[in-house]
Fold:
Amino acid sequence: MLKLELQLSEQDLKYTLDALQTYVSEMSSEIADTDSQDFRDDLKHKRISIYRVIEQLKNYLPQITG
Structure:
């Protein structure tokens, strides 16, 4: 497990979260349209990893805006 330290403005964090959420939502159609089971499985694992990152980043929003 890696430990990262980022210095982002509130706006940068919001834009990053928005971009990741948009990308993840678009992955569903890509997964559905993929014929290769291996590629589909890879995309599903990638989507899960991105969801985890999104959830971790969301934890910083209340600290910034609250």
User: Anything to note?
Assistant: The chain has one domain: 10-65.
